[in-house]
Structure formats: structure tokens, C-alpha cells
Amino acid sequence: MPATSMPLSSRSVRCTRTPPFRIGLIGEDDLISLHQAGAVGDICGHWIDADGQLVNHPLNHRVIGLAPESLRDIDTVILPSGGLDKVPVLRAVLRLGVVDVLITDEQTAAAILAEKALA
């Protein structure tokens, strides 16, 4: 079954303090250049900016996986993620419009909503 024909999918997001950085899969130079490119985090291994758009970065050209836009073809996409450090990337993914259900903690939800009220 192709990934996009699945009726349900659970995804995750990462910010720049997550394991790939801590264990050295993505180096300090990549981290610096991701920030310079405007990345706030990733979904499905694809690095996105605050508006949910892919950043122009070599790491995005090496990803083997489902493109974030392809998530629109899945009936229900669930994103379980929380923590105040993830607020920027969660807002970006919500702006992208590919998540149907966000499961998070109260503090993170309040921070996302507070940012939205200011926009």
C-alpha cells in the first residue's frame, strides 16, 4: 500500500535540540546552516521554515521519505508532539495544513494559541 493511500498516519516533528544533533547524525555546521536558511524544525525529515515551507538546504535534497505535501493525501494525519521547544516547528506544520489532529500538552497548546493571537 503506498504511503499516501493510508487512511491514518502518525507523524512527529523535531526541533534543533533533538537526537540527530545530540548524537552527531547532523553536525554543528549543518545546524548553523539550517538556522541561516530559516529552518525551525522538520517533519518527515524535511526541514521547514516558520511558514511551513521547505528551506533551501542540502539536507532536504538527501531525504528518503514522504514529502510533507504528500501528507495531504492521507485521510487522517495525527501529530503527537509537545514541549515549549517545539512551538516554532509545530506552528510551522500547522501553517502547512497537513495535520488533522494535534496531540500535545496544555503549555504547548497555550503557547501555540498565544502566538496565533499575536499574528
Describe the structure.
The chain is of the alpha/beta class. The strands form two sheets. The chain has a three-stranded parallel sheet with strand order 1-5-6, with no helix packed on it. The chain has a three-stranded antiparallel sheet with strand order 2-3-4, with helices on one face. It has helices at 19-22, 28-37, 58-61, 87-96, 106-118, and strands at residues 8-10, 13-14, 41-43, 46-48, 76-80, 101-103. It is built from five helices and six strands.
Outline of the structure:
The protein is of the alpha/beta class and 119 residues long.
Name the features:
three-stranded antiparallel sheet, alpha/beta, three-stranded parallel sheet, globular, 119 residues
Write the SSE topology.
Elements: E1 8-10, E2 13-14, H1 19-22, H2 28-37, E3 41-43, E4 46-48, H3 58-61, E5 76-80, H4 87-96, E6 101-103, H5 106-118
Structural class: alpha/beta
Record field, number of beta strands: 6
Shape summary: globular
Query: Helix-strand pattern, N to C?
Result: EEHHEEHEHEH
